[in-house]
Amino acid sequence: MFLINCPYCGERDQSEFVSGGEAHIARPKQPTELNDDQWAEYLFMRKNIKGIQFERWNHAHGCRKWFNVARDTSNDKIEIIYKMGEQPPKL
Amino acid sequence: MSKNLRINNKQFVDETRKLSFVFNGKKLYGYKGDTLASALLSNDIHLVGRSFKYHRPRGIMTSGSEEPNAILQIGNDDALTEPNVRATEIELYDGLICNSQNCWPSVNFDIGGINNFLSPLLPAGFYYKTFMWPASFWEKYEYFIRKSAGLGKSPTKQDPDMYDHRYMHCDILIVGGGVSGLIAAKIASDDNKKVLLLEDKELLGGSLIYDDNDISKIDNQKSSEWLKKLIENIKNDKNIIIKTRTSLAAYHNYNFLLARQNLTDHLSVNDRNNKIRQRLYKIRAKKVIISTGAIERPQVFHNNDRPGIMLASAVKKYIDYYGVRCGLENVIFTNNDSAYETALSLHKSGTKLNAIVDIRENSSSEIVNKVKSLGIQIYWNHTIANTKGYKRINKVAIMKLNDKGNDVIGKKIELNCDCLAISGGWTPMVHLFTQSGGKLKFDNKDNIFVPDKTNLNQLSIGSAKGDFELDDVLKNSIKDTKKFLQIENSNYDKIDVQCSKEKEKKNIWLLPSDKPLSKTKPFLDYQNDSTAKDIKLALREGFKSIEHVKRYTTTGMGTDQGKLANMHALGIVADTTNTNMGDLGTTTFRPPYTPLTFGTIVGRNVGQFFDIFRKTPMHEWHVDNNAKFENVGQWKRAWYYPKDGETMHDAVQRESKAARESSGILDASTLGKIDIQGTDANEFLNRVYTNAWSKLQIGKCRYGLMLNEDGMVYDDGVTTKLGENHYLMTTTTGGAANVMSKLEDYLQTEWPELDVFLTSVTDHYATASVCGPNAKKIINKIFKNLDLSDESFPHMSFKEVKLGNINCRIMRISFTGELSYEINVEASYGKYIWEKCIEAGKEFKITPYGTETMHLLRAEKGFIIVGQDTDGTMTPVDLQMDWIISKKKYDFIGKRSLYRSDTIREDRKQLVGLLTDDPNEILEEGAQIVKDENKKPVNMLGHVTSSYFSPTLKKSIALAVLKEGKKLKGQKLLVPMIDKTIKVTVSDTVFLDKENERING
């Protein structure tokens, strides 16, 4: 059970949060310009890596804010937490 | 008691409190302070169970949680009985009833014991190999396998006990109240840390507290005396919270741990009333210190499993702590110095020790020299080649080892014994460390795995870390704790410790016998009956990974989880394959460390607290009016209101007829409601719904359909424009929370530039929906000054009015196809407004209807229910709802997906209506639809999603999803059922009032 440091509320138990999958997949601004393959790339394709993965988390049973988490999937260590809209840090 | 097995005047057993208990129907006695195991042993009972596979007689082997054999059925009550309880862990209480498991008719005469003689036919993988073929016989095999699997009996009635959960937070959590844990607790407390100390036994102190030899000393005091003072000190320490009878079950990431405390299991049944039985602590610790100690290993030799064969440390504990002799003629078999402590305890208690058999050539440590000086016979460089005695050991045959230690030489010597104390060295309890993700390293010197790397803020100390001698335990615990807590000095820096130091070490994983291995039974895992032979067979058959060997031979898979067996299994694999044990690795240790009852896991979440449920403000009225309820999401919704013993069908027919012919009323409070405000609210709606919202005027309502980004229908509902930048969105009852979080997600992550705020107001309002031809008259009676004319208050519009002081939002919207008004009031007025409607509607025979009638009424109109007629694979086009997709909008959620190659396929499943050829035949929801049922395999074209008998149309109607359904209108198809085939015709989805005339009354 993780202890997650919500950037708005502080450290809280994982049970207050939900994971929203891979981070930094921006919704295309002009979907109609995309062919099926390009749209499928946005819609379906997600990484599943061993190592540091950038993910979105939501403090669902708290402030309801979304934020980004860099987590090492091999040991679940959270390396860094940063707000929505911020660029992923170099790790 | 014919034999004199009790040693009097032991401090931990209260001989003034005699307790009676019943074992296998026989009444016996023990004392307060005994465990069930020590009480049985004091009655000269070793044989307590039969092994799992061969049904061999087995006795008490240990004194702790590693016990593989003495697992009993406690209690004989259908609700309270508990299987697989370790006799070594349960404290004796007055009136305890226990029985042996896995034997029939009795533990003394067990029919299954024949398996012992069939054992050459039952090698590892026997079940896998034998019951593979023929496949059609599986059902017959299963009956017998199920019968021979499992040990105890589960309770058959509901657990009447109370269980509790509690959160705990601390600076330092210390697991294990032995000497190393205690000293770490004191050091941490002296540094002003909040300490939580867990001990699974009744008393603190671990094994040192009953240590009775004169060799080990701390600060020139007898070590146990020194320890008692430390414990007193700790008990009075305000920084330290102590929880005894509390065992750690699981160590999760981020220092989150679960511990279970026994609160009443040691009390007699009558004293347990209204007390919480067990408590589960959910602990979040800043730092964790593991001081769980070590468990002694047995040795692996031929027939090493007879009753009376016990761990040397257990024999010592039964004497020194419980005052119980495990036998009157003892032999010790060891490969290390620790068993010599048992020798001293036997000697001191005046118990006969016939000999010590040691596989080492010699040892000259202080403790061994002391034993030598007592004149006790020691057979150096000898092993036990065999043992005798079916239900209790009576002889051991010993032989000399050859130079390599892989064979025996010379003459066999037989020694009498009724108790054989064995010691094969010690294994640190690293279970918790590895559960938490820590990596182990192998220590070649002691043949143990010790904690190495961890990502967590944790420390292992004492014998859990691999320190076994008292000076190492104390000095390293002090040093490591100080470093871990970043402390310069402690009060224990000058501690003086004296103890015997072991100099000679020798370890043989599988001891030789004069018989060939194939003729012997050297057991590794006592509970699962796996032997060294099974391991070798698995290796011969090509299994290499230790995880595969474990599963093939079931070594370490019993309720003891291989606490005794695992190291020997690894050792034998390493020896056989010429591998270093460190390279083999260990099998994975998984929580719980010791089994938990289901009651402890669920805690208070039983019965009505199993899951939360939500009630509408009108709930009591529905209850008073005989409503039957159904669960929709977490809500309890009125399902139908049976009158005078009506069936559901009858009630629904009556309710729906009333709604169509005069008036009906529905509690619609459960619909999700989201308040949307902000200057970009309109733009937001345009982006989340498929249809256009730009031209919606204040006071008007509009139906919207929401898709997922993959183009599939996600939710629907009516949204009302309350003000220029203010909307009230309704969602489906079950989808409310998900819609809310999805919208919030888009707002925060994709469109942060939009000025929009969302508030969930589902609970803030109660909604009564009045429908039917007389709805307008009823509303008019309640709101006398409200203009209800179609010009002033048309369909799909909204008005805000007051009823006295109550603010009412009235929407004229319809899910039934009838003229219909939804009155929304603040939740606390919900029941008032509902009763007001019932009162006003009396003269029109207003009829409350539930969700079932609502479903029927909307199905007559062909309105979908998201989640019933859709399943996450339906696009709006599939639903024949093309009209709701805006052609003008550049983008909305899911738009691009509506023309992916897959979503534009014409042979997708599409929503259609179905009419049965026999109008009285009602289809079953979920029934498959086919064209030809004779051509195998039968081609499934789709299935029925909604089906009802319409009293208004006097025929059965159904909605269905059907491959290429749009093209199939008018086609005859078949719905095959188990006893008949129903003929149907594909129809339009709207069955009633295609012209929408009823909507205006």
Mean pLDDT of chain B: 93
The main pleated sheet of chain B reads as: 7 strands, mixed
Rg of chain B, please?
A: 38 Å
Quick one: how many beta strands of chain B?
50
> From the helix content, strand content and strand pairing of chain B, which structural class follows?
alpha+beta
Number of helices of chain B: 23
Overall shape of chain B: it is elongated
What is the helical fraction of chain B, as a range of percent?
10-25%
Mean pLDDT of chain A: 94
Strand percentage of chain A: 35-45%
So, the CATH homologous superfamily of chain A? Folate-binding superfamily
Here the CATH topology of chain A equals Folate-binding fold
| % residues in beta strands of chain B | 25-35%
Write the layout of secondary structure elements.
The complex is a heterodimer of chains A (91) and B (1001).
Chain A: E1 3-6, E2 10-13, E3 18-22, H1 36-43, E4 52-58, E5 66-72, E6 77-83
Antiparallel strand pairs in A: 1-2, 3-4, 4-5, 5-6
Chain B: E1 14-23, E2 26-32, H1 36-42, E3 47-50, E4 57-59, E5 71-74, E6 82-86, E7 96-99, H2 114-117, H3 126-130, H4 138-148, E8 162-175, H5 179-190, E9 195-198, E10 217-218, E11 221-222, H6 223-235, E12 240-243, E13 246-252, E14 256-262, E15 276-290, E16 294-296, E17 309-311, H7 312-320, E18 330-334, H8 339-348, E19 353-358, H9 366-373, E20 378-380, E21 382-388, E22 395-401, E23 408-416, E24 419-423, E25 426-428, H10 431-435, E26 439-443, E27 448-453, E28 458-460, H11 470-484, E29 497-498, E30 523-525, E31 530-531, H12 532-540, H13 546-553, H14 566-577, H15 581-584, H16 598-602, H17 619-624, E32 628-632, E33 635-640, H18 648-661, E34 664-667, E35 672-677, H19 681-688, E36 701-707, E37 713-723, E38 726-731, H20 736-750, E39 757-760, E40 765-771, H21 775-782, E41 797-803, E42 806-812, E43 820-826, H22 830-841, E44 847-848, H23 851-860, E45 909-916, E46 928-930, E47 940-950, E48 955-963, E49 972-976, E50 981-987
Parallel strand pairs in B: 1-7, 8-9, 8-15, 9-12, 15-28, 17-24, 18-19, 18-24, 19-20, 34-44
Antiparallel strand pairs in B: 1-2, 3-4, 5-6, 5-7, 10-11, 10-29, 13-14, 14-15, 16-25, 21-22, 22-23, 26-27, 30-31, 32-33, 34-40, 35-38, 35-39, 36-37, 37-38, 40-43, 41-42, 42-43, 45-48, 45-50, 46-47, 47-48, 49-50
Helix pairs in contact in B: 5-6, 5-11, 7-8, 8-9, 12-13, 12-14, 18-23, 21-22
